[in-house]
Amino acid sequence: MIKNLGQMMKKAKEMQGKMAEAQERVAEIEATGVSGGGMVEVTLSGKNEMRRLRVDPSLFSEDQAVVEDLIVAAHNDARVKVEGMVQEEMGKVTGGLGLPPGFEMPSF
Fold first, then answer.
1. For residue 58, what pLDDT is reported?
2. SS3 of 52, please?
3. Helix axis angle, 64-94 relative to 2-28, nearest 10°?
4. At 83, which helix (H) or strand (E)?
5. List of residues 6+ apart from 90 with CB closer than 8 A
6. Which residues neighbour 61 within 8 Å (Cβ) at sequence distance 6 or greater?
């Protein structure tokens, strides 16, 4: 039993190191969401922080609600991309754990 506990502690320490490395890689992830045929672009980090916003100048003559909707759509597109990239990165760490279906690791 003690031997198993030692092995479990070693595995936990290894997992902790791998999670820290994954968190560093997630922080460097960037994804750009697009809407309006490329007229609006939003770039988010792996932690869902907005890094950049680009709005085509021609949209400034449009109705404010249209521009706002395009920004929201581009942000949501970027968020979905980031979530997929983060899940993929975390899957590299948790893939061998045999976690039950539907179990999610905490987000950062």
1. 95
2. strand
3. 150
4. helix 64-94
5. 22, 26, 105
6. none
Over residues 35-52, the pLDDT tens digits come to: 999 999 999 999 899 999
Strand order in the sheet with 30-35: 30-35, 40-45, 50-55
The CA distances from residue 3 to 17, 99, 102, in Å, are: 21, 23, 31
CA atoms within 13 A on the CB side of 96: 7
* Tokens describing residue 28: 């460097």
Q: Decide if pLDDT at 108 tops 80.
A: no
The CATH number corresponding to 29-93 among 3.40.50.2020, 3.10.450.50, 1.10.1200.10, 3.30.1310.10 equals 3.30.1310.10
CA distance 105 to 92: 12
Question: For the chain, what's the residue count?
Answer: 108
Q: What is the pTM of this model?
A: 0.71
